[in-house]
Amino acid sequence: MLDAKAHTHRNLRTPDWYKSATRWTQLTLAEDDPVKFDPAFWIEVFKRTRSNATCLSAGGYIAYYPSKVPLHYVSKFIGDSDPFGTLVEGARRLGMHVMARVDPHAIHQDAADAHPEWIAVDQDGNRRRHWAFPEVWVTCAYSDYNFGFMPKVLEELTRDYDIDAIFANRWQGHGVCYCESCKTNFRAASGYELPRHANPEDPVWMAWAAWRRTVLTRLVVEWDAAMKKIKPHTSFIPNMGSVSLMEFDLEVIQRYCPFLCVDDQGRRGTEPIWMAGRNGKRMRATFPDRPAILITSIGPEEAYRWKDSVTTGPEMQAWIDNGTTQGLLPWFTKFNGVVPDNRWVEPVADSFGLHAELEPVLAAMQPVAEVAILDPATTLRHHGQETRASAEADDLGFYHALVEARIPFEMVSDQAMTSGLLDRFKVLVLANSTCLSDEQIRTLEAYVARGGSIVAAHETSTRTALNQPRHAIGLGPLLGVSLTAPARGPVKNTYVAINGLHPISEGFDGANRIIGGTQLLAVDTVADAEVPFLYLPDFPDLPMEEVYPRQEPRGAAVVARRHQGGGRTVYFPWNVGGIFKEVLAADHARLIGNAVRWALGKPLDVEVHGREVLDLAVREDTDSTAVVLHNLNNPMMMKGPIRSVFPAGPQVVSLAIPEGRRFAGAKLLVSGREAHARVADGRVEIDVPWLETLEAVHVTWG
């Protein structure tokens, strides 16, 4: 896969240029690169990785071209060279699309002296030195630096270079700025003084988040307009990761972001490999038809910032390949044009080559699934970086449980859940959608009335869209429960007891009870509710002699309900997803899988049988279905970097044959082999003898 095939020439210099920009090389230059790096090496990298698009350092903090914009700092090593221009010309000779990278988050001393109002200010009134390089200053993203100075840079780049777009990194600012301009403008817009703390229940913080969103939206509009005035086909591409889908109004992204960049460059801390692909599902949850790109670093992504380093090849490939599995386009980024360690080149080229081989088949197909997780954007948009991780814990736990259960699934944003979109799925999971509007609740109720099913947990719908407490479960009438006591916890040593025979309580043979949660709500149930699990009332966890239950199980811990329209609902009045993410108890994984399968009410259309942990994706077009299997079975699956690949053993992919169709053939796209298949009872079973990292089973229907 390392052969250099011809790059695409479709859509060059047209408004649709991005549609054929499907594999990206990004080079972020260091200041001394103009006298040290070899542009020819990078042109060869473009070829070897089969990249058809590139993002190149251009300006902002440092210009890598002879800029004429006053106070635009040009690399002191540039001499009479033009590194940016040289790379642009090399890429264009290969028929590639080109995007210039700017970074406006810091300025040098000369600009700070001339325009102190461009500098961000902290809570104590001090102008902010850069946290990592104190010789320079952090800019205020809401100041004239971004609204007056940076448009001149964008205009110069668009006018003087053969580019398709400008990509901005760190353009959104770094928290609240307390400069005089921000104080005055925020007070005029809201009537408040600037908030001192990030608190999603503070109306001042909420007002600041809305004001910031308005200001940055205007910035996107103005930068894009400045470019299009010069070259109509060009675009400003803000670095809009998955968090931005919650921070910005969707209409702005719809209009000004022809494709979406996920700047989640790798794993940090304890994080599973499937987090890469989750970004793709989250983007599709809001914009199902918009291309999304996963930016991958060749180095580790830990807090210690070893940016000019190389992680292991299998780690890089796992991140890129999981993005490919879930429909993300690959983009790798290298910091520093000098390459003292080239161990990254071959694994990146291999994963990019794998994408290039699969692209002709998979790109024309649409992702499908019977199950979806609701992305709780309405809830998460109230949270800053300090609280978002805890607010997302339940969703991540459910996500991992469904991966382990081998249940193919997608995501749906609660900001975009129309009736038509919901009806694509048979089961919708609300892991902890705390904030839901009355309209969103009505939409979900109507979905179940039409035959859809819901699995909900924890504090789902207990707050309004504006984060005001309801003192009730908004979806309670649908789920068959009424709130009798709000969430309490953290509670230790809790258990839920099996309450009779039920499909949700299957597979726990030998156990009368299993681990419970740490945040517990109390609910009453309606007469037609089924209660597969009851709470075991709290009892001490010390002294050890006192660790025994005082009371019999009572109070619903899992509530199941069948609805007249054919739909089903399941409700967990505790944090089953969040505690599974933290503890990874096998019983919780089984419980979540059982609940989703019961809610579906039938066998899955796509099932994969085998021993290993796989991330699955399903795509289809009119005449075929593709099942993509990414091998996650590795001792480093939850904490990288991966050292080596452990091939997965035999798998059996079982598909329900679509009504009115017949099985016509199957092929394993990665290995290139014809697949051995069997047809029986309305299903086709296809053998995958083994897979190393990735396989795609392509089934055609007659």
Write the layout of secondary structure elements.
Elements: E1 24-28, H1 39-48, E2 53-60, H2 83-93, E3 97-103, E4 106-107, H3 109-114, E5 137-138, H4 144-160, E6 165-168, H5 180-190, H6 203-228, E7 235-238, H7 244-247, H8 250-256, E8 260-262, H9 275-286, E9 292-297, H10 313-325, E10 329-335, H11 345-362, E11 366-367, E12 371-375, H12 377-380, H13 385-391, H14 393-404, E13 409-413, H15 419-422, E14 427-430, H16 438-449, E15 453-457, H17 476-479, E16 481-488, E17 495-498, E18 513-515, E19 520-525, E20 530-536, E21 556-562, E22 568-572, H18 576-583, H19 586-600, E23 606-609, E24 614-621, E25 624-631, E26 651-656, E27 663-668, E28 677-680, E29 683-688, E30 694-701
Parallel strand pairs: 1-2, 1-10, 2-3, 3-6, 6-7, 8-9, 9-10, 12-13, 12-14, 14-15, 15-22
Antiparallel strand pairs: 4-5, 11-24, 16-19, 17-18, 17-20, 20-21, 21-22, 23-26, 24-25, 25-30, 26-29, 27-30, 28-29
Helix pairs in contact: 1-2, 4-6, 9-10, 10-11, 14-18, 14-19, 18-19
